[in-house]
Amino acid sequence: MTSSHIANKQELPPTAWAVLGLLSFPGERTGYELKKWADSSLRFFYWSPAISQIYAELRRLEELGYASSARSGPEELRAKRRYAITEAGREALAGWAADTAEAGPPVLKHGLLLRIWLGHLSEPDRLRAMVADHLERTRGELAAVWEAMAHAADVPEWAFPALALRWSERQHLAELELGEALLADLAEAGRQAGDHPAGAGRQADGDAPTPG
């Protein structure tokens, strides 16, 4: 790998590595096919890039020599450009995947919990309804994970994606358990609020409600 490739490697965003990772499995794929695969795999444990991001990263990867593309022939009604990983791209991707220092800690941005945190500005029924909606969406996502797991089963090339999907299954099951516990916590908070009307008891002194 040339020094220019090494320098560019360090500047690539995670989206580029994710797209290159999709190309690392056998076969050539169009940008649209890469998007469909990201929606049925990556989004369950990381995120799914927009189709515009995928094409932008494909252009970047081609410029670096990490990917190559070819247009379909006249046998197809609509011309398509299919992409494949190059040896240089596979080498760079393997190096990036082995670099645990770049993995970083998991990042949790839970929109529902942000609203629960601001529950003093809402009504208890509204908060419970939001949690119920979240549980329904999570059950739908879990069903999609199971569908993806069934699709990946018994395909040797997808053994490691299947492991990631299995982790996603456990994560969604845990999210359902946490949501049910949150409903119970909201019910208990509502009972306590009824026992202690607003203005009663010790008043906040302006400090943060948690140490730090």
Summary tags:
2 strands, disordered N terminus, mainly alpha, 59% helix
Task: Sum this structure up briefly.
The protein has 212 residues and is mainly alpha-helical. The chain contains 8 helices and 2 strands, in the order H-H-H-H-E-E-H-H-H-H.
Order the strands across the largest sheet as they lie in space. 1-2
> Into which percentage range does the β-strand content fall?
under 5%
- What structural class do helix, strand and pairing data support? mainly alpha
Task: Give me the Rg, rounded.
Answer: 23 Å
Structure notes:
The chain has 212 residues and is mainly alpha-helical. Helix content is 59%, strand content 5%. The chain is built from 8 helices and 2 strands. It has helices spanning 3-11, 14-23, 31-39, 51-64, 87-97, 111-117, 124-152, 159-195; strands at 67-71, 81-85. Strands 1-2 form a two-stranded antiparallel ribbon. Helix 2 (14-23) packs across helix 4 (51-64). The radius of gyration is 23 Å and the shape is elongated. The protein starts with a helix and ends in a 17-residue tail after the last helix. The model is unreliable at 1-9 (pLDDT under 50). It holds the Pfam family PadR. This is PadR family transcriptional regulator. Residues 190-212 are annotated as: Disordered.
